[in-house]
Amino acid sequence: MPDRKKAPALKQPNAYEVRLPACEKIELKNQVPLFYVKGGAEPVVQIEWVLRAGNIFETNKGVAAAVAALFKRGTGKKSAFEISRQFEFFGASFQAACQAEYVVLSLETLSKYIGELLPLVRELLTDAIFPDDEFELYRQNSIQHLQVYLKKSDFVADREMGTMLFGRNNPYGKKTAIADLDKLSLTDIKNFYEKNYLDGDLKIFASGQWDKDFVELMEHNFGDLNIGNKKVLPDVETQEPEIRKNDLVIDSNGVQASIRIARIFPDKKHPDFQKALVLNTIFGGYFGSRLQSNIREDKGYTYGIYSYLQFNLKYTLWGISTESGKEVADAAISEVYKEMVRLTKEEVPEEELQLVRNYSIGRQLNGLDGPFRIMDWWRMLIMNDLDEKYFEERIRTIKTVTPGELLEIAKKYLKPEDFLELKVV
Question: Mean pLDDT for the chain?
Fold first, then answer.
């Protein structure tokens, strides 16, 4: 029996051995891969169908997002109301998220209802009809939403920074305008659905607890589909930025400025990437970061400021994002650059680095809390052609990277002149 009068020994997060639990893989009869992590205490399941059907594959702007929104609003047998009612009857959630390269279809349900819901997902994947009235309603709502969001400085700043970095004709930099939504056609939507859903490049990810007949159910519902055809990402090229610094005014009476500072950065497979993640945490990646301590806590210019590494399959960007009062926006930008330069001139103190090590290991442990989060890790690895060695390298780098190594990364990538700057009021 433990002595309850004595507190247990304190163990720093950095002392934990962190390992990524295994992920199993099988192939259905049509060679569609099914990856799964079985575990958890509750009888719930998450299944994700990931298709290479993001906006990088569209020829007309807005089509990929429209298909992701509309394919579940009517089939040859069911109306949008009947589809929603069936998911809700079983207390299930079914969502579609359109990203740059992929569309992720996600079903969350109690394990005992899988057999009732998988045929409905199959029906959506194979028999969506895109009713005229649902299409018109979607287009009208999308135009109204875009009109509202184009008045918000943070939304405009995110769109404009992508264009500044990648170019207006690059899939990562293009913007959907109201005119593009006006030109949306059902013909384009149905063609995209046929090419990228019916004849799509599909991977399936499942996590949670289920009965022993789960694989048979997946095989029965999806193993005979003519799907899983490999699609190559189209070539995309960046161009030299037309503008390196831009001030936009969308509201002359606005009192808030949205600030974005960013540069293109090597992808996940680059040898500097893992060390850059640690450096980014120190710079602006958590609430105790240098940007937060200086610009929020000391100067009071903002309620929050963060730096981040945002990655796609083709490109990664290293960015800083914040909102401030417009009268202190230039001062806030100046302090961002000061913190960059400071990291290129001085080694990070060991005490600060140890705090970041503990925080980062704690984040990794939290990211392995339950089968859904474990599968999030595996999905990221698989979709980026990585394996568990990448995760192991992440942990090793957090624990062993030195102040000197971080200084070299800062000198290489945190040069103020390499960043593009945008301010939107």
Answer: 92
